[in-house]
Amino acid sequence: MTSTFRTLTVPLDGKASPGGLPQFLVRDDVLCWSRREAGLVGFGEITRFTTTGPDRFLEADIWWRHLVIEADITDSVELPGTGPVAFGSFAFSKKSAHESRLIVPEIVVGFRDGHAWLTQLTFDDGVLTEAGALAALDRWLGSGSASAFLPDGDVPTSDPDVAGDGTPGAQPPGAGAAVVRPLPLAAGATLHTGSLSEEDWMAAVAAGVAEIRTGALEKLVLARDIVATVPTGVNAAQVLRELSARYRECWTYGVDGLVGATPEMLIQVEGRTAQARVLAGTLDRRDAHGQAGIPMDYAERVLAGSEKQRHEHEIAIQSLTSQLAPFSEAMNAHDEPFILELPNVWHLASDVKAELAEVEGHVPTCLALINALHPTAAVCGTPTLVAGALIRKLEHLDRGPYAGPVGWLDAAGNGEWGIALRGAVIEDPQTVRLYAGCGIVDGSQPEAELAETWAKFRPMLESLGISN
Ligand SMILES: C=C(O[C@H]1C=CC=C(C(=O)O)[C@@H]1O)C(=O)O
Fold first, then answer.
1. Which terminus of the chain, N or C, has fewer Cβ atoms within 10 Å?
2. Nearest CA to ligand 1 atom 4
């Protein structure tokens, strides 16, 4: 690649899009990071970096820094997420065959704090203009309406080469804004066993508990997969819209076939401030009759009042804060965890905030932090190496990107990276592999953990139109 990497960011009129970012989730191939009405949506791809192995985060960090250091950036908005941006997804395991990736889109639409913007990214020669960026957005949306988002209402002259060049399969931008209720059921969809049958997975949980009782480790997270076959084809854009409408406390992600809505923030970096949301401790909101009738005070008693759940949570916070400490000047975590209410489950949650320290004259980038933080006890266990080895022995599963970091980063090192939970990989247009796991400690019951995996599959099953 010899041409210069160039980007242009211009403001959009957020008010012209009252539905915010989910309105732009109109294509199955969008790159997505969204929470409530804010976030980033990417269209197209101008380059990508892929890698495997133990140094995947640092290799990606170096690649990205090299790319942006020479970039020609015009940015009149100047917020985290403006200018050059890459979306990424990383394998959970350093031994995984799955490729970790950073993808640089051609177009990004961003919303945050009442601001909206559009970025065009390119290696091509030629002048980047607001009109050209809007025309490119139109092309991805398959419409001629992007100019309605200009702050002053001007209708720019579109680039005649690209204007009106609707992309096959795209829907008009408004098409995805409304949430369809009740959820459409996918005709003929079926579910299949993944790597392990339910019985074999429960045996693995029992083996994990036995190992914990020997004192070899304190906590272990065991996951399993199931496969959904959807003969009518998976509508990824619809899945993303459903997840972002229903799981408003979560971060909805879509990167190269990996889709989901995670409640767990691995690390969010904005300038010198880093934040994380640590979860551990789960209670299904459905009662024995399948009704979501469990009251909050019951959840508080069972989660916050349970020694097992508190212990599991304590281990998760300890694992994050001890890894973050060397990069921080100051850190605060609430003494008491809070109850996070999601449509499917309750969680015991804690938010951690750190003021980042300069290391060798630089604030660490989000990928440098991820390199130190991943895998946390919430998805692996404690001690990490013992838990990791046991996961490989007991799960019989390459987790791929499940439970790995997923998110975005910008040229300044800002970014948001969740842990890819409550998600799935769209393996082909009719096949989706769903993943869910549970923290296992002394006292964990295999049947209860199996039931918990079904509660954690629920967001994806519902958004795919499969009821359980
Ligand atoms: C491993 C998963 O959840 C983790 C995050 C929150 C609560 C968890 C738990 O209570 O077991 C898990 O540690 C998953 O959703 O697949």
1. N
2. 378
Q: Measured in angstroms, how far is the CA atom of residue 379 from the centroid of ligand 1? A: 6
Say yes or no: domain 190-463 is CATH 3.10.20.810: no
| Cα 338 to Cα 352: distance, rounded to the nearest angstrom | 12
Q: Which two tokens stand for residue 333?
A: 């975590």
CA–CA dist 314, 26 (Å, integer): 40
Query: Which structure tokens are listed for 194?
Result: 């993944």
Q: Where are the domains of the chain?
A: 6-175, 190-463
Three-state secondary structure call for residue 197: coil
Give the C-alpha separation, 31 to 108, whole Å: 9
Known catalytic residue: 264? yes
- Choose among 340, 291, 176, 149: nearest CA to 245: 176
The CA 264 to ligand 1 mean position distance, Å, reads 9
Q: Enumerate the β-bridge partners of residue 258.
A: 255, 425
Look up 358 and say whether it is catalytic: no
What one-character-per-residue DSSP string does 323-384 give? HHGGGEEEEEE-SS-EEEE-SSEEEEEEEEEEEEPPBTTBPPPHHHHHHHHPSPTTTSEESH
Q: How far is the C-alpha of 295 from the C-alpha of 285, rounded, in Å? A: 8
Q: Name every protein residue with a CB atom under 6 angstroms from any ligand 1 atom.
A: 221, 223, 264, 279-282, 347, 378-379, 421-422, 436-439, 456
ipTM: 0.99
Measure 109 CA to ligand 1 centroid, in angstroms: 31
Which residue's alpha carbon is nearest to atom 10 within ligand 1?
281
Reported pTM: 0.91
Catalytic residue among 264, 395, 416, 452: 264
For residue 163, count other CB atoms closer than 10 A to its CB. Answer: 19
pLDDT per residue, tens digit, the chain (468 aa), is 558 999 999 999 866 677 789 999 999 999 999 999 899 999 999 999 999 999 999 999 999 999 999 999 999 999 999 999 999 999 999 999 999 999 999 999 999 999 999 999 999 988 999 999 999 999 999 866 666 666 654 433 333 232 222 222 333 233 333 333 445 567 788 999 999 999 999 999 999 999 999 999 999 999 999 999 999 999 999 999 999 999 999 999 999 999 999 999 999 999 999 999 999 889 999 876 667 777 888 888 888 888 888 888 888 898 899 999 999 999 998 778 999 999 999 999 999 999 999 978 889 999 999 999 999 999 999 999 999 999 999 999 999 999 999 999 999 999 999 999 999 999 999 999 999 999 999 999 999 999 999 999 999 999 999 876
